[in-house]
Design goal:
By secondary structure, this protein is mainly α. The protein is 82% helix and 0% strand. Among the domains are: 75 residues; 32 residues, no CATH class. Helix 4 packs antiparallel against helix 5.
């Protein structure tokens, strides 16, 4: 007889163990599977490379700050350009005045065309008054715009000032302001 056949109790023991395994409740298996899946999901979400809302909100805040910084730099560049143009205009005016004075001096030395010199002085005075009036008009328009435009509460924050909605609000207000100025000016 073989050793397996000699012990008839051994196959019964194996059968009892197999029957105990088959008696496990299927809901218990499903619950264990769900617990494993939830554990994997939590592990994945806690990994350092996982995307989360704080990282995306920080990235959007950084992008908004960058957009505000770029807008400030553009505004500063525009202001510098305007200042340079104003300086160039003043220098041109000073050169014209110096040339006019030299011309008047030569005319006065001639003595023959004092009337012509007076007319030229008057013309120069009119040109200067026109340039000054243009500068005043530009300054008045800028001051009127500053009094007119008040950003909404959502757009007062510098980070939100670069959003599409705030830029659109600014453009609409600028168009309305220009339309009012065009309707109010007797041109």
């Amino acid at each position: 007889m073989s050793p397996v056949q000699s012990n008839p109790a051994k196959p019964r023991k194996q059968q009892r163990q197999i029957s105990k395994i088959s008696q496990i409740n299927p809901l218990f298996c499903v619950a264990c599977g769900l617990a494993l899946i939830m554990g994997a999901g939590i592990t994945y979400s806690l990994e350092p490379g996982a995307t989360d809302r704080t990282a995306s909100s920080e990235a959007s805040a950084l992008a908004a700050e960058r957009a505000v910084r770029i807008q400030r730099e553009r505004n500063l560049a525009k202001a510098r350009e305007r200042e340079a143009l104003a300086r160039a205009e003043l220098e041109r005016q000073a050169a014209e005045e110096a040339a006019e004075r030299a011309r008047r001096a030569s005319l006065m030395a001639d003595g023959s065309s004092e009337v012509q010199a007076r007319h030229q002085r008057e013309e120069m005075t009119r040109k200067q008054a026109a340039v000054e009036a243009a500068h005043r008009a530009a300054a008045d328009a800028e001051a009127a715009w500053k009094r007119f435009y008040r950003p909404s509460a959502a757009c007062r924050d510098q980070a939100a000032g670069a959003t599409v909605e705030c830029v659109n609000e600014y453009v609409r207000a600028k168009r309305e302001f220009e339309a009012q100025r065009a309707g109010a000016s007797p041109s």
